[in-house]
């Protein structure tokens, strides 16, 4: 994929361990992949569908995803308003799941709304990626048109040269 990811991998000087850095690089690529975003979208959908049965399990998975993302992207994670918003949704949902375990019915609608809002973030990331790909394709098209014009000029010049050479013989 030629699009640039929303977040960059933080390179900390104080992290000399190559294995840790390698793991972070692999997770960085995974967290910026369409597969990852599609998986999260699927988890959010399953979470909403199964809210009453396994809501806490999904909340724990989302908190784990958040913690790993913060570790992978370091301070870059907090430079995106959508990521901050997503983290707030995850933490508020987790708080409600844990603190209000007995009041699930009253809080369930709030949790559903908060989790569905995550879908907006994921869709926004897909649209940003699509915009970046579209820009790259537009640049390529403009470059190709420019090269085509140059080649057309060269063909016309050669035709003119050939025509004047034949007539002059």
At a glance:
Its main location: membrane. One of its GO terms (molecular function) is voltage-gated proton channel activity. By secondary structure, the chain is mostly helical.
The quaternary structure here is single chain
* Alpha plus pi helix count: 5
Shape: elongated
* SS-derived structural category: mainly alpha
Give the proportion of residues in helices.
over 70%
Outline the biggest β-sheet: none
Total number of β-strand segments? 0
- Tell me the radius of gyration: 26 Å
The ordered H/E elements are HHHHH
Low-confidence stretches: none
Beta-strand percentage range:
under 5%
Mean pLDDT: 76
**First and last CA, distance:** 56 Å
Transmembrane segments: 40-73, 85-103
Subcellular location: Cell membrane
Protein name: Voltage-gated hydrogen channel 1
Membrane topology: Multi-pass membrane protein
Describe the protein in words.
By secondary structure, the protein is mostly helical. The protein contains 5 helices and no strands. It has a domain at 18-122. It comes from Lojkania enalia. It is a multi-pass membrane protein. GO terms for molecular function: voltage-gated proton channel activity. The chain crosses the membrane at residues 40-73, 85-103.
Which terms summarize this structure?
169 residues; 80% helix; mainly alpha
């Amino acid at each position: 994929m030629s699009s640039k990811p929303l977040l960059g991998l933080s390179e900390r000087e104080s992290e000399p361990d190559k294995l840790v850095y390698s793991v972070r690089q692999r997770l960085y690529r995974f967290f910026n992949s369409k597969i990852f975003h599609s998986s999260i979208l699927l988890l959010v959908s399953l979470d909403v569908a199964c809210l009453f049965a396994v809501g806490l399990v999904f909340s724990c998975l989302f908190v784990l995803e958040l913690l790993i993302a913060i570790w992978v992207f370091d301070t870059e994670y907090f430079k995106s308003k959508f990521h901050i918003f997503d983290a707030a949704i995850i933490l508020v949902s987790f708080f409600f799941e844990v603190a209000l375990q007995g009041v699930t019915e009253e809080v369930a609608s709030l949790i559903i709304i908060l989790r569905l809002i995550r879908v907006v973030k994921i869709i926004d990331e897909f649209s940003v990626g699509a915009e970046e790909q579209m820009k790259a394709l537009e640049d390529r098209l403009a470059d190709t048109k420019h090269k085509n014009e140059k080649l057309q000029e060269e063909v016309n010049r050669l035709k003119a040269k050939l025509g004047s050479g034949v007539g002059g013989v």
